[in-house]
Amino acid sequence: MKWMNVLNQEFLPQESSALPEKKPQGEEPIREEKPRGLSRQEVLRRKKEYGENVLVGKRKKHAVILFFEQYKDIMTMILLVCTAASVFMGEYVEAITIAVIVLMNGFLGFLQERKTERTLESLQAMAAPHANVFRGGVLCSQPASELVPGDLVLIEAGDRIPADGTLVSSVALSCDESMLTGESVAVKKGEDEQSVYMGCTVVGGRGEFLVEHTGMRTKMGQIAGMLNQISEEPTPLQKHLAGLSKYIAAGCLLICAIVSITGVLRGEDLFSMLITGVSLAVAAVPEGLCAVVTISLALAVSRMVKQNALVRKLHAVETLGCATVICSDKTGTITKNQMSVHAFSTMKTKECEKPDRSDEAIEQMLLCFRVCTAVQDDAPTHGSATEQALYRCASAEIPQKPPMTKVAEIPFDSTRKRMSVLMKTPGGGYTLYAKGAPDVLLSRCSSVQVGSRIVPLGAVERAQLVKQNGVLADRAMRVIGAAYRQAFDETDTAEEGLVFLGFAGLTDPPRDGVKQAVFRGRQAGIKTVMITGDHKNTAAAIAKQTGILTEGERVVTGAELDRMDDSTLRNTVMQTSVFARVSPEHKLRIVRAFKQRGQITAMTGDGVNDAPAVKEADIGVSMGKTGTDVTKEAADMILLDDDFSTMMTAVAEGRSIYANIRKFIRYLLSCNIGEVLTMFLGMLFSMPVILLPIQILLVNLVTDGLPAIALGLEPYDQNVMKKPPRKPEESIFSNGLGFRIIMCGILIGLTTLGSFVCVYRMTGDVTHARTAALFSLIFAQLLHVFECKTEEGSIFSISFFNNKKLIAAAAVSVTVLFCVMYVPWLQMIFSTVSLSFEELLWPMLFCLAAPVLRAVIHR
């Protein structure tokens, strides 16, 4: 590995946009008392001057345009043309009423779409990247949009660079600039290449850079200015439903054409039958189906974010309901990520909870942890939980910074599993300190410190150390080894021939509720798999505590994975619950193996090297607190609290929303079949026109709007996680849903037709009969909406009051119905009359008989 000397300095930027002059190598900078970074007042001034650090995308649609887009479907256009024709023929009341109803339908769609758009905008804002920036001498996390030219920003492996700028210091820094250059090879940064660019990712090392350009002035901004934002693709479910709507529309149009032609052949008015046919088509075609799906998904996403699950892509909500395997990281997800050093172990001191300073190996180990860390003295809360725990422990014992100068550093890497620093001692000598995974570190050691002596590391000593490591790991500790050696000069950085010092055992207890969440997943047919870089024994201990590892299940290490070919791995994964000592490359193989077994796999990750596996998974999940920007970009969902329990809550929500989509599909299609069947049978049996066009439009407004959306907000069934996952290829009409839709549609149609016939024979007046049919059709559909709350029972087994929005929507619809029937001026518009109790009795009996009949058939 190529090393780069780093000046032992802190850059103190002036409060101006000018970049600092490059110091000659080896020249000591003049230290100033001025704090690092810009002051708050200067940030505000520059933000006013340069604006926010954001890219300007395609302009959003104006509200007026969005409103008129509600009327672009062909059916509504035909209806508006017919309305104009009514005006031309002098049918002003009918024309005005139809126009008002069409406008109300469009207005409701407009309001729903605006609400969905705002919900998604707020969620996108939550997922916006952050940057670690020095402000007034303090390192803090700020939204990347708040950066201004002159800010001093810290970047590390996994970060997405938030602005264009110039490096002022770096340690083994390399960046992926393929998004700008197309070159996949990472670019090493240092003296020869000091520029960093917005949107590129840090793949190794760390550094600090001074922001030079923000927003549209960056290279990415220049590209964004030439391109429109990519439009959002419909979700798979939306595509499926859109195709379904086309088939339904074709069938409905055919029936409506038959209705119109039959009416004309019977002597009905041509224009009246044309209006009837078009109105029936508008009522029959479920035009709002995809819109309701989108609204329901967006509202589900909004609910999920309140439970700390931020869904970045809507289709993830659908896919979550199919998940069969969840591959989860251990630290911070299954455990609390609240690391603390619990024990020390050396050849002399087998184990002690507090550092025994009389043991020189422990003394040297503390010194190693004090200097060999990614935690900075001016930012003690920055870095991983393990780094912070080691830093806190060592700093408590060695509060004063050792009189050494860092010459070079090899940062921790998940593949190398170790970190090293080369320190220059006051006497002019050099010492290399290293820490990392004990097994990896031991393989690079040739001797071991026993008290004040250094002895060769023979087979006996090595076996004893391996045993000590196992003892700590068996107690669910994360074990970190420490080693050192004297170096010859500032270029002697080989991590070989080290002197092993001992172990530090860190504890990270399981999160509250994880055990219950794992059990809940098992009940739901979901396999939980722990993937960690920890020792096999440590991983197994935590897995047993949380119920992930049960009798008969395996623990596989990264070394064992390396010996397996893909075929062997495919045969192994379903019997394995824990993968230990794995690298990011292993994670990718594990995910692919599960997918090849036909499993719908979710994968959690936080580091930059986890991104390929997260991207490969059916549901990629990033950690919200510890996740890097790269991983968040690759993920479909972000756990804002990094908690595994949140994952199971998200799966339950995903299953629930799919169940609710089935519910309102059942409702909408049943109602539409009932409406078409009513008109078709009436024409077939040479009856008068059962419902007038304006009455059909009223039904469409009263029953297909608020009740359908309210049904999509149904709270999820408590038994939803006691059922196996659905198969992705499963039809949306599976488990008899198609039969129930057809059966309910027929019953609604026969109920309406029966009410018309009974009242017509009772009164001999077609207006009374039509009013009864209108009442029967709407009332039957509103009863059916409550039946749709469950697929497993009847209306007599449901809970009516667990969805107050549905009750309110039904109440509004019933109020509108009675107003149309009993308010004189509305009677004139909708051609209705007041019905007596006796005239209402038959329609009510027909409507109430239908649920009873469906309950009998269901049994």
Automatic annotation (TrEMBL):
SUPFAM superfamilies linked: Calcium ATPase, transduction domain A, Calcium ATPase, transmembrane domain M, HAD-like, Metal cation-transporting ATPase, ATP-binding domain N
Matching InterPro entries: ATPase_P-typ_cation-transptr_C, ATPase_P-typ_cation-transptr_N, ATPase_P-typ_cyto_dom_N, ATPase_P-typ_P_site, ATPase_P-typ_TM_dom_sf, ATPase_P-typ_transduc_dom_A_sf, ATPase_P-type_domA, HAD-like_sf
Protein name from the UniProt record: Cation-translocating P-type ATPase
Membrane topology label: Multi-pass membrane protein
Residue stretches making up the Cation-transporting P-type ATPase N-terminal domain: 2-91
Protein species of origin: Merdimmobilis hominis
Protein's cellular compartments: Membrane
Keyword Nucleus in annotation: no
Main location: membrane
